[in-house]
From TrEMBL:
InterPro entries: Ribosomal_uS19 (IPR002222), Ribosomal_uS19_bac-type (IPR005732), Ribosomal_uS19_CS (IPR020934), Ribosomal_uS19_SF (IPR023575). Gene3D superfamilies: 30s Ribosomal Protein S19, Chain A (3.30.860.10). Keywords: Ribonucleoprotein, Ribosomal protein, RNA-binding, rRNA-binding. GO terms for cellular component: cytoplasm; small ribosomal subunit. This is Small ribosomal subunit protein uS19. Pfam families: Ribosomal_S19 (PF00203). Belongs to the universal ribosomal protein uS19 family. It comes from the Bacteria. GO terms for molecular function: rRNA binding; structural constituent of ribosome. It comes from Candidatus Jorgensenbacteria bacterium RIFCSPLOWO2_12_FULL_42_11. Protein S19 forms a complex with S13 that binds strongly to the 16S ribosomal RNA. GO terms for biological process: ribosomal small subunit assembly; translation. The lineage of its organism: Bacteria, Candidatus Joergenseniibacteriota.
Length: 108
């Protein structure tokens, strides 16, 4: 835990103000750049647009997320597959095998 327990959790105040203006379950996303803000119980049921450096990722807060940070649910790096030529060949063979499998006949 990076923050001292005597200080309490860090919640961005402007987020709490924006939450107070909306009703729970409202489909509008609250845009925020505060990725380091912890999710508090008041945030459950709201939708947030968390900035990942390029665009906003929609995050719907549930009870299991309380205590985590908003940034944990908006990844900043894009995973590119490992492999190369060999991996592509394996994937193509797998695709061909799936296409060649006979489809079950429909009952009449």
């Amino acid at each position: 835990m990076s923050r001292s327990s005597k200080k309490g959790p860090y919640v961005y105040q402007k987020l709490l103000e924006k939450i107070a203006k909306l009703k729970p379950g409202d489909p509008t996303a609250i845009k925020t750049w505060a990725r380091d803000s912890e999710i508090s119980p008041e945030m459950v049921g709201y939708t947030f647009g968390v900035h990942n450096g390029k665009n906003f990722i929609t995050v719907r807060v549930s009870e299991e997320m309380v205590g985590h940070r908003l940034g944990e649910f908006s990844l900043t790096r894009k995973f590119v597959k490992h492999g190369g030529k060999i991996q592509k060949e394996l994937e193509q063979k797998k695709e061909m095998a799936q296409q060649e499998q006979p489809k079950p006949a429909a009952k009449q």
